[in-house]
Structures
1.
Amino acid sequence: MRVLKFGGTSVGSAQRIKNVAELISKRGKNIIVLSAMSGTTNTLVEISDYLYKKNTDGAKETINNLEKHYKDTVDELFSDSNFKDDAVKEIKACFNYIRSFTKDIFTLFEEKEILSQGELMSTAMMNLYLQSKGIKSALLPALEFMRTDKNGEPDSQYIKQKINAQIEKHADADIYITQGYICRNAYGEVDNLQRGGSDYSASLIGAAINAEEIEIWTDIDGMHNNDPRYVPDTTPVHTLHFEEAAELAYFGAKILHPTCILPAKLNNIPVRLLNTMQPEAEGTLIYNSKAGKEIKAIAAKDNITAIKIKSGRMLLAYGFLRKVFEIFESYKTPIDMIATSEVGVSVSIDNEKNLDGILDDLKKFGTVTVDHDMVIICVVGDLEWKNCGFESKVLQALTDIPVRMISYGGSNYNISILVKREDKVRALNKLSDYLFKNKA
Ligand code: ADP
Ligand code: ASP
Ligand code: MG
């Protein structure tokens, strides 16, 4: 069995839902993971923002507009009046539930309930639509198997046990439909796997059922060699090693959720990135591929803060770095990049939530300077240190761009470079020109 995940754009209209239904019905008995229709989760966030601000009118107007959009979609999707009636009822129940939160206090718990409605609606519509076409589709409710533990990490054992029990319960189904993104936490409350987390759902499900392959269907023909939102003429990379894909996803390639590769890698399940609008395109295959001695792709991660701690006490001393890292650990703030010298260390973080406390504590160890609004540019490929020349190529491409930090040697798969936000697009384009288009 395979897991096929379709993102928001892929199910973004009645016509697209029909196209996906046709595509999946030809593929046999698989698990289909769906996101909410495109724009829905953003709108649900907007509704929650109104409710946090006690702007009930704003919330109600936005809810009404979204409901109208869903009613129109159902209207266009179903020709059979019985299935249409069922779909109308499902959608109405979701909107009534969303409206119920406009009446009382509003906290993070209520927000998470609201955010879960998008995936519940897209899967309800797809399930009924497939049934209206005579396909025995079974809905596997993610809220009954997808679960995180007390640390917010997926509870793999629980997921495995529960999803397999669900599959057995519907053994005679032709196809399984489930929600991406949504889950319950260790306390049984409705929660989610963070924005864009449907990819993560797909890969957790793939691991839980030991899938033959995990397919991520989206609106582009695979992982491109640079960010197509900022660089023209990018091209798809046809194969990537798990590690390469994980670096790209973590460092900003939006096509994949940052954590999506890990469960697939641990279970050695290939991940294929495919385009719903162009299903015949080759896409990208991510697996335990052989290294190819080449630079494959570039990605960028925004909102990075660089912190430098300089101290004479670091010179020839041991234990200095441990003390510095302990401070970040005590604030549960992960470090992305590190660069050290004999008298100082620079680190980068992507979360300023606890910055004031971190800086106060660091100042006990030396002089601290901070650069906000930085971007990590990540160059990925088979960059084994014995292969010559790739570092110089990367730096050559960036000759006229100020570089705050460079990090290489942590893995064989990436070089990370920290630049100012305003230099990001220029840096991405220069790297593409120099590394992929042979333009010096
Ligand atoms: P979905 O809704 O299907 O999950 P996403 O919007 O999350 O889709 O991801 C697909 C988008 O990722 C593409 O439309 C593209 O703009 C963006 N993207 C960013 N970097 C890359 C890259 N390196 N290769 C392909 N797409 C990328
Ligand atoms: N619907 C969720 C989001 O927009 C999850 C996803 O699409 O992956 O973030
Ligand atoms: Mg996505």
2.
Amino acid sequence: MSLWGGRFSEPSDEDLRRLNDSIGFDRALYAEDIAGSIAYARALAAAGVLAADEVKAIVAGLQQVLAEFDNDIFTLMPADEDIHTAVERRLIELVGDVGGKLHTGRSRNDQVATDFRLWSMRAVDRLLSDLRQLQTALVEMAERHIDCVMPGYTHLQPAQPITAAHWLLSYFWMLERDVDCLVSARDRMAVCPLGAGALAGTPLSIDRHALANSLGFRRPSENSLDAVSDRDFVADLLYACALCAAHLSRLAEDILIYSNPAFAFISLDDRYSTGSSLMPQKRNADPMELMRGKTGRLIGNLSGFLSTLKSLPSGYNKDLQEDKEALFDSLDALARLLPVMSASIRSLQINAQAMAAALTEDLLATDLADYLVRKGLPFRQAHHAVGMVVRRAGELSVELSALPLAELQGINPLFAPDVEAVFDFAQSVAQRRAFGGTAPTAVREQIALAKQRLAGQER
Ligand code: ARG
């Protein structure tokens, strides 16, 4: 018998039950469901709905149900359609009819919304700790490569020299925005729907502020009709997960490119590389491809769930049951991806020689234009002159520094013998020392800031 069977003369069709039941996945909410019920039982007692001995019996019963789940000895029954009905059914078995008083004034609509918010708040904490690990790995690796110069790219074409530390730290800051996004999402989701009833609120004199606080929420929801169907917090988290995955996917793409033998800037540790069943020489970065691949799925979870939300009429609708699998899937994926990315970064080999060998003088073309600017030429003219220098070097098949001074002066008379000093990659990098630049001095400042963030300051 289901908990709502009174008005029905026939049991549900088997196929409908398979479609309707959510216990297969919402069992994951058992701890939050029981915590919500214990707080609610106490609120009912405070409102004079439950006597002292009744609330005592209910709380003890719920604690026993919790122990059964924790120890994996909870036995599901065919009528347990979701976690809420399963817990209540077992409570009544354990404590008798008094257990049937727990649901007074409550609906599964405010109950599930409360449970899932509580669960999501805890999930954010787990995700933040995985993110912090990866950020720490990036900072530690960056610290060891502050003076290591490599080509930087725009449009994946050689652009300007940068330091390897600067490259690694660029991902630290992307992930820092993910942390910010998650922290503010957690803040916004800390609003308690319990007491909203099915849609209209509760007739009982429940102190919803006290109830919300007792569960760790900031405040109760302001509108019961909105509260039961508000899943913005799920959309927020799905977005935060998708964006975080997009950041991992970009890092993965860099690692795939830079570990290609044509670049050979880095190599992944054996433990994070895979081979081919046919080609003995192969060393593939499959984990990075999985980062990229899973990202598509996480973006799908977000857009899929937004589509679920968009046409719902007011109040709770069963469509909302789709919220859980989508969010579980996105969070599970990140829980698998983040530790692998952290370990891959920690064990990354950075090949400074290969990076240095890839530094071609065209990367210094901007520095050459800056040289003319220092001699008084407006930048636009300097840019044009250096463009001609690059073309001339190409025609003569020589590096920029090998062009005779006479050739340079033929293009612009401001070129002088001191132009030689421009052809120094370390010097190019060292000049970009304004805040946020790639110079080792600026990168040291950047690392200090990153460490402050990791230590929980400067938020
Ligand atoms: N399993 C349901 C869900 O996840 C619980 C709420 C059911 N409420 C209802 N009125 N049928 O949304």
3.
Amino acid sequence: MTDILKYDYIVIGSGIAGIRAAIELKKYGSVLILTKSKLYEGSTFHAQGGVAVVISSLDKPKFHFADTINAGAGICQPDAVWRMVEEGPKRIEELIDWGVSFDTKGKQFKLTKEGAHRLSRVLHAGGDATGANIENVLVNKIKNENIDYMEETYVSKLITQDNEVYGAIAYRDKKRFVIFSKAVVVASGGIGQLYDVTTNPPVSTGDGIYFSFLAGANVMDMEFIQFHPTSLAMDTYPKFLISEAVRGEGAILLDENGNRFMEDIHPLKELASRDIVARAIFNHMNSHHVKNVWLDISPIGFDKFEKRFPTIYKKLMELNLCLKGCKIPVSPAAHYFMGGINIDIKGRASLKNLFAAGEVSCSGLHGGNRLASNSLLESLVFAKLVGDSGKFYENTSIREINFIDEPISSAVYDESIVKEIKVIMERNAGIIRKESDLKKNIVFFKDLWSSYRGLSDDNEKNVILKSMIINGLLISQFALNRKESRGAHFRSDFPFLNDIKWKIHQKYSIYDEDLKWIK
Ligand code: FAD
Ligand code: SIN
């Protein structure tokens, strides 16, 4: 059964980016948010450390700009960084007006330092519950403003013709919705679930990249995956994050013998940029055959730790941890995607009427390695810019087109494939890569795509499997192409930066010679 709906704007995803875009677009017409789980379920809700923003009198936009560029390993898109740094404070003031209460001491906001920031500039709420605070306020706002939304509804495809987007196809309980709109905003979050070890929630399966790429949109920087240095090294699913703010407040990393190994690796020690700390831990674990290193929180003091990081403290207590001398077992985990749907400075993708914001998008702002706590800020700034585009659609109308829907194959698959994809991505396209492994991935994903490309979309697991195949293939291909090491992309067979050949962004669409077989 199919329902046909019409909305001026469709927003896919209800994290910080989707909701912020929807709030703005509502000024220009009707908006429908489609979200595949509950409204609040996404990375946003789980964000701990906070939001980096220039708010202190000691700070300046040019400092935040320079720190972002330095962390980004030479390929940040400077105009996008400026936009975020300059417009960020206004977006934060709005959040405060809408009800987010960032932590204060007296009349001053409390600010924390995180890796590769020259000074303390990270606002936080509820100690380490920043994302939950923001998401709750945003969800209340869409309810108060009567913005329509559909939960438990996943988008499987964009409706397109001649490189123009006319809407999207979604499913809820096997029922199909064909939704026509003037414009579509993809805000479906990251790809962490492609990896076996990740901090990302179950919804982060890269769907927006999958269906936008198949529709013809350019994708960019797909080789750059950020691994967070300190996820809790216990069997939780997903991995529970131990915020970088814990190191920002003074915690140090120790090896199995109690030695502070980051001192030998970088002058900023535990607060070097994330790629450096994650790789150092990974290399240490491999060379010493240990499953984790230790985060010693005693420099913070146990009482302060409990107050400053209540969510982490509660988790550690639940797991009966941190009673052993205040040391937490930690190891790296896939955390954030610097790549995604290529957007310009206004959030426009390469297809007409298609926009993207948040972690699914790639303006090049983060370069090869995102500066800690820049993601929430980037999402707010770019989602607002996307929303501003509503004014250009005010005098247009929604157009319906006839389109050909997918072929439906009778292929069935064993669900163990999903686990196999995660293991293969972890092993061959993880923190350290090399040509032979990446080539194996490409063969593996090509085979999977030829077997399962026709799987019907009325089952959400089928869409997720297809998304994982396409994202895995693109990440592996981009990583194979980049014959150097830069930021979060490290090649053991090309361990050095090569600015002469590779100070560039890779950008491809399904129409490119090497990828058009996917169609
Ligand atoms: P999300 O918040 O992930 O939302 C994606 C939405 O898309 C969800 O609603 C999901 O259900 C929906 N969706 C996905 N696929 C579909 C589909 N096919 N159809 C319909 N809906 C779909 N960044 C910081 O700046 N500071 C931090 O302190 C911080 N801490 C973090 C801690 C953790 C544990 C994690 C995982 C990330 C953290 N990050 C942090 C990163 C940051 O939280 C994310 O990059 C950001 O929240 C992404 O927001 P988003 O709106 O793009 O995506
Ligand atoms: C953290 O709290 O360490 C996560 C911050 C981020 O991903 O920016």
